[in-house]
């Protein structure tokens, strides 16, 4: 299977990553309502069967439950799995030791000795400087507990700074995880995509389905309402859904020609940008199977361009 290297010398991973924010998260996704641990275990198994062995989690997802589930599921397979998790730079964490301690706790929940990618979840680090953060993470790479370092939600300038601090330690910055989909293209207009390319940093695209909007299952007419916090998000209101109807129509039209779903077209468009790995959040095996059909084939240049033109209003 086609693989992508994380940054300059990181792990080789499949072109799609599985997002596990919803795994155990009640606050936003309403875990326990409509899906449970059994469904998640089935989703994990379906991912491995489809060759999607790369998983993204974070210590704060489900207050640790997402990492715990992933750890339990990994324990039950002999297939190699690549795990990316995230450090939360919280106000009471202001020493190098607090970073290493957080990593220790994540590894315990994941039941792993080493992970492929450790990411700083957001750039604002209160009393913790970027130097302390990056230098500590570089030491962890040298000690072998993490293979590569990533950042998340970093602007082009912040990514450049992190890259520079790490370069002085001889460690490349591997990834920047940012919100990126056909309906959230600000990372292009803000120069994040171009800077990542220049620095050899791989982009991990989060919310690549715009939290379900790009699947086309939520329409202004349908009674199908999203679960959890999306219920109060104006993007999921009747007016919000009307605004994106032309994009969904285009995804359907392109999909029908190729016997693909809107979600598969939307994810394939991101992969087609090059240097971009979408992280599709999933709750069920069915969603995994569908999303795994987003790679292994290519939209042609005309289709890529048509989608680009149709979604220019979402560049800003
Ligand atoms: N670094 C960060 O700050 C950050 C922020 C957000 C997310 N992330 C990461 O990115 C991942 C993905 O982002 P996300 O979960 O926000 O959004 P997403 O991947 O755009 O959407 C995920 C949701 O869409 C629906 N869905 C997925 N595949 C589907 C399919 N084939 N058919 C129908 N519905 C489908 C599911 O919800 P329903 O079935 O309920 O509609 C699923 O929970 C997260 O899990 C997390 O790992 C990172």
Q: How would you concisely characterize the structure shown here?
A:
This protein has 316 residues and is an alpha/beta fold. 40% of the residues lie in helices and 15% in strands.
Question: How would you describe this protein?
Answer:
The chain has a single domain, classed as NADP-dependent oxidoreductase domain (TIM Barrel). It has helices at residues 37-49, 65-75, 96-110, 130-143, 156-168, 186-189, 192-199, 238-243, 245-258, 262-272, 285-292, 301-310, and strands at 4-5, 12-13, 17-19, 54-56, 82-87, 115-120, 146-152, 173-179, 202-206, 276-281. The strands form two sheets. An eight-stranded parallel barrel has the order 3-4-5-6-7-8-9-10, surrounded by five helices. The protein has a two-stranded antiparallel ribbon with strand order 1-2. It contains twelve helices and ten strands. Strand 7, helix 5 and strand 8 (173-179) form a beta-alpha-beta unit. Helix content is 40%, strand content 15%. With 316 residues, it is an alpha/beta fold. Bound molecules: NADP nicotinamide-adenine-dinucleotide phosphate. NADP nicotinamide-adenine-dinucleotide phosphate (NAP) is lined by residues 19-22, 56, 121, 152-153, 177, 206-212, 215, 217, 226-227, 263, 279-283, 287, 290-291.
């Amino acid at each position: 299977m086609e693989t992508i290297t994380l940054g300059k010398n990181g792990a080789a991973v499949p072109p799609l990553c599985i997002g596990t924010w919803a795994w155990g998260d009640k606050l936003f996704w309403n875990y326990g309502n409509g899906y449970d641990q059994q469904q998640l275990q089935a989703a994990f198994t379906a991912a491995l069967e489809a060759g999607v062995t790369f998983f993204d989690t974070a210590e704060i997802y489900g207050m640790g439950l997402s990492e715990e589930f992933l750890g339990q599921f990994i324990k039950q397979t002999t297939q190699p799995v690549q795990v990316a998790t995230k450090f939360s730079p919280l106000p009471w964490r202001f020493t190098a030791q607090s970073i290493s301690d957080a990593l220790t706790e994540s590894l315990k929940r994941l039941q792993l000795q080493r992970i492929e990618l450790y990411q700083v979840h957001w750039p604002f680090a209160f009393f913790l400087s970027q130097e302390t953060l990056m230098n500590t993470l570089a030491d962890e790479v040298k000690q072998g507990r993490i293979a590569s370092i990533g950042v998340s939600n970093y602007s082009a300038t912040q990514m450049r700074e992190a890259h520079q601090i790490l370069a002085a330690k001889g460690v490349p910055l591997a990834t920047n995880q940012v919100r990126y989909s056909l309906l959230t293209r600000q990372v292009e207009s803000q120069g994040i995509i171009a800077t990542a390319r220049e620095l050899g940093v791989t982009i991990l695209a989060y919310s690549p389905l715009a939290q379900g909007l790009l699947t086309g299952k939520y329409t202004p007419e349908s009674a199908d309402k999203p679960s959890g916090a999306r219920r109060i998000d104006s993007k999921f209101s009747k007016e919000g859904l009307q605004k994106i109807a032309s994009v969904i129509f285009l995804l359907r039209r392109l999909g029908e020609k190729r016997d693909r779903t809107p979600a598969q077209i939307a994810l394939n468009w991101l992969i087609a940008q090059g240097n971009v790995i979408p992280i599709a959040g999933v709750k069920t095996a069915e969603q995994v199977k569908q999303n795994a059909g987003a790679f292994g084939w290519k939209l042609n240049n005309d289709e890529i361009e048509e989608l680009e033109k149709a979604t220019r209003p979402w560049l800003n």
